[in-house]
Amino acid sequence: MGPFTCLIEMETPSILVVDDVRSNLELMEAVFMKEGFRVYTALGADAAIDLFTSNSIDLAVLDVMMPGVDGFELCTRLKDISGKRFFPVILLTALTDRQSKIKGIASGADDFISKPFDNSELIMKIKSLLKLKRLNEELDHSENIILTLAVAMEARDPYTKGHSTRVSKLSVDFVSFLGLPETDRKEMKKAGILHDIGKICLSESLLRKPGPLTKEEVEMIKTHAVLGEELCRPLVSMRKILPSIRYHHERWDGGGFPDGLGGEEIPLMARILAIVDSFDAMVSVRPYRDRRSVRVTLETMREEQHDGQWDSELLGYFLTMMWPLAEKGYKTDA
Ligand SMILES: [Fe+2]
After folding, report:
1. Phi then psi dihedrals of residue 28, to 5 deg
2. Which of 29, 133, 25 is nearest to 89 (CA)?
3. How many CA atoms, within 13 angstroms, populate the side-chain half-sphere of residue 253?
4. If you measure from the C-alpha of residue 271 to the centroid of ligand 1, how many angstroms do you get, rounded to a whole number?
5. From ligand 1's centre to the CA of 225, what distance in Å?
6. Where are the alpha helices (DSSP H) in 266-311?
């Protein structure tokens, strides 16, 4: 049980059952109600979609062979309506041939059961999919809390407000520009938001200090990279982004922190983050200087391209992506 488990309401699961044969519906309704589920029944796709859009339904059991819109098509529609939310669907079919299963998988079905069905097998499949759904929701919930806290934390300071959100968005754009896979985009979205989360452990007076910092204060601020990694380490869903958080201040020439990694020892995602983080910091207003224009910032980065701070090849790609945007009057909302 995770720390946020208690925040998820444990309601009676509700199941939508769709079959064009009324006696089948009644049979399944009786079986599911005996298990303590709330049951919604529909004789066809239109009624099913009406019920689905007007009630909170956790899972659907759909007969495949129905006149008009069949179970495959209905499955696809219900999945479309649920969007990114995980909504489990079991297809109930007399067909056991391979072709139907392939069609079912293509329509997004999560499991199959053959008619005449075995009650306990169907119930077992339903319970396991409901468990999976609940785990998904808990994970989303925990992630959202952490991401919201990160954004809220930096919003307290007018100089950092919006920084992580902008870094996240631009890093994701850069990952797409580089042609990296969808999984990298997803990781980068989280890493961008959380890269400075370790600052939550540092005092506000230190973070907001306008004047020059003492050597000790600089060292203190540097700890945010490791602190951020430690904060996120207990969360399984954040595991992949830990290196991005820890290493986003490493330098290509090995002169960065916390570990002084150099070159390709620094994970690619951290090198990407380092470039976008620097860009956003340079175009943002800071206590000690006004904002720089996007064009001036890009020119500065180009002049310093081979000075050892960044992966120069990667920075080349970043500049290639950004120049046309700057020409078109790209503005950050910093
Ligand atoms: Fe940072």
Report:
1. -65, -40
2. 133
3. 7
4. 13
5. 6
6. 268-283, 294-303
What does the pLDDT look like over 137-158, one tens digit per residue?
887 777 888 888 888 877 777 7
Residues 6+ apart with CB under 8 A from 205: none
CA distance 287 to 277: 17
Output b/e per residue, 104-127; b: 16+ Cβ within 10 A. Answer: beebbbbbbbeeebeeeebbebbe
Quote the CA–CA distance of 194 and 297 in Å, as a whole number: 24
What pLDDT does residue 5 have?
40
From the candidates 115, 161, 199, 240, which is the catalytic residue?
199
* Token duo for residue 164: 């992580």
Please state, in angstroms and as integers, the Cα–Cα distance from residue 300 to each residue in 66, 269, 313, following that order.
65, 22, 16
- Ligand 1 centroid – CA 194 distance (Å): 9
Low-confidence ranges of the chain (pLDDT < 70): 1-10, 95-97, 285-291, 332-334
Q: Is 233 left (phi over 0), alpha (psi -120 to 50) or beta?
A: alpha
The residue type of 256 is G
Residue 95 burial by Cβ neighbours in a 10 Å radius (0-12, 13-18, 19+) = middle
pLDDT value of residue 93: 81
> What letter does residue 37 receive in the DSSP assignment?
-
| CA 109/CA 125 separation, integer angstroms | 13
Whether this prediction's pTM lies above 0.85 is answered by no
192: left (phi > 0), else alpha (psi -120 to 50), else beta?
alpha
Token reading at 231: 């904060």
Q: Which helix (H) or strand (E) holds 60?
A: strand 59-63
CA of 191 to the centre of ligand 1 (A): 11
List Cβ<8 Å contacts ≥24 apart for 262-266: 263/311, 266/311
- pLDDT value at residue 9: 47
Is 161 known to be catalytic?
no
